[in-house]
Amino acid sequence: MTNVSLARVPCTIVTGFLGAGKTTLVRHVLENAGGRRLAVIVNEFGDVGIDREVLKGCGIDACPEENIVELANGCLCCTVADDFVPALDAILSREPRVDHILIETSGLALPKPLVQAFNWPSVNSRVTVDGVIAVVDGATLAEGRVTADPAALAAQRAADPALEHEDPVEEVFQDQIACADLVVMTKADMIDDAALDRARANLAVSLPAGVRVIAARQGVLDPSVLLGLGLAAEDSIGQRKTLHDAEDDHEHDDFASFILDLPEISAPVDLTDRIAALSRDLGVLRVKGHVAVAGKAMRLLVQAVGQRVSHQFDRAWTSEEARAGRLVVIGLKGLDQAAVAQALRG
Predict the structure, then answer these.
(1) With pLDDT > 70 as the criterion, what percentage of the chain qualifies?
(2) Could you tell me the pTM of the whole model?
């Protein structure tokens, strides 16, 4: 390896489908940096930085708040020149110099165009792709699905691998796995050994030869397994075949998202019940954000994948903030936003 290569800052790209556990995994890496100075680029799908809020609330010395950069203008793979390169410039200008950069892509991202951007001369001379980590939901894969939302995959024809998968969710999932150097299977603590074996078997259909699968429980995984792979994935990305190789763009027009502001709520369980019903009744894929609960000084963080909803109080409201909720809602093209808004507002 040359001195120029040694001088380049390694970047780990963390990709994966909606709600698979990317942010939890990244947060664990930040909390166990092992002396590394880290920076994070978060690609939020929508205009509210929920994932960044989850990360910056950690108060981690290894990755101060100014080292967490949010890109909120659509899918990072579509906006490399406009968004990614300036963010990279900002991070690389920091002192002291960062040792490693984590890039958490949107759940809808195709990683290949992003990895290919590391071959641009202005980028390649300064950074390299240490590895591409695909995060998958083991509990859902054990059921033969790639997302916890069955309505979104009603047209899936995975039973016959010879048929084309017209479902956009399945295509995105396959492209993410095709570009992976390592697959992290989360939520292994939610299933037994037999289900874990089924999840691995279902994943094997899309898994490139030689790519390892590691099971993680509650997002906990030794960072030394994820960082320092030294693979320079940008050098081999052209050989990784994806479903979108013949396309001229990656607009993801099959998806829709919007932001909903919510007033203070009185009962979290009522809201989570309404969110769970969205997947069944209106085809919502993902909901995430925060809300204010009457009589509570803490902010309630809400995250949902299909009918599986989790919530927890993450931090106190500050005096500069309005006690109001904001949720990002993601679904397939044609999502009835008015009906979803009405359902969430009760």
Answers:
(1) 75
(2) 0.64
